[in-house]
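I hope you will forgive my troubling you with a question about protein structure. The matter concerns a single protein, recorded as an amino acid sequence and a row of backbone structure tokens. Please examine both parts with care and let me know of anything in them that strikes you as inconsistent. Here, with my thanks, is the record as I have it:
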Amino acid sequence: MTKYLARLGYEVTVLTSKVSGSGPIEGAHAVVRTSDLLASSFNWRRRHLDEGKVGATTPPPSPVESLIVPDVSAVSWLPFALRSARSLIRSNRPDCLVTTSPPQSVHVVGLRLAGHGLPWIAEFRDGWRFERPRGDWRFEAQRRLDDRLERSVARKADAIVAVTTPIADDLRERFDRPVELITNGFDPDDVDATAVGDAAAILDPDRVSIVHTGSMGFTGGSARPLVEALRLIRRDSPEAASRLELVFAGLLSTDEAALLGSRDLDEMVRCIGSLDRPAVLQLQRAADALLVITEGARRRSVATGKLFEYLATDRPILVLGSETEAGRIVLGAERGSAVPATDSQAIATELRRAAEGGWPSMSDRSRVERYSWAELAGHYAAVVDDVTGNVVS
């Protein structure tokens, strides 16, 4: 988004945490990365993730995360973020402030700075009280505090942006406010620049290769119904099973790695660990089809950035989660198929269809261009202009 806002003439300063990485952000006028306790040696979970990419597993949630409202960043990062934000305002006052979550505590920056007269856009890229990834808080006092914080943000922000339709609908209904829907997207420059390259060598040319990129352990999706579907195919359609391979590129939880590594799935499933971003984009374009795994009805609002990368590839997409926003988007764009996330029989039917060459080729791109960052940035710019009273010709 920053890249394409800059091309439209907007000067964007990004304030973030050292946890998010290092170096410049394309299109940003300036990038300020503050200290964060999660980036320190005190965070054993981060050390665990940094031990290696290939074959790494995601650590279990920290007990601290179940105590701090709205999230652990309220303690680890928010104090540093507030100090840096105030310094930025003093040195070069911006025309508009955008707080984008998760973590939800980032919106406290907006609450604290609202009194400075800055137009403020609060952007929800996950739900807050709506469809919390790990369920609701254990104690009533935590729930009341979380409710109060969310309500304050929703009422005091000058504009609200949501990334999926369910999140937008929930905010409109509960707070009786307009909400702009601006989804995730794909970078058209990646589409123009990315060739298949060496990634094709990863895939078996004698099989139909269905690729999943990214981490299941972080999103909450489970591979168990998928594994059950593969076993159904092996039992009932051995010829289709011999023509099919599922390739997983990304971090896996310990449980998911064990499940996908089951011996009875040899040759049908391969887990290749994490790849760098260029290799991931190449692998997506080399695949015969692409796979999205969601939690289904438990989190209907899910539509991750990976899905939009998939849309740009012109490869058929199978979404395990017809109940979700990801399923709605793929079906609406006519870019593949979606089945219930827990229906192993339906999943097996679609996989057999893929193995038998039954999925159509992707030719018409008109339905996916709305998800280009270039298009989305124009929509975002209109929101900025509205809250600032600045219409740029």
Notes: The chain has a mean pLDDT of 89. The first strand starts at residue 13 and ends at 17. The CA atoms of residues 37 and 43 lie 7 Å apart.
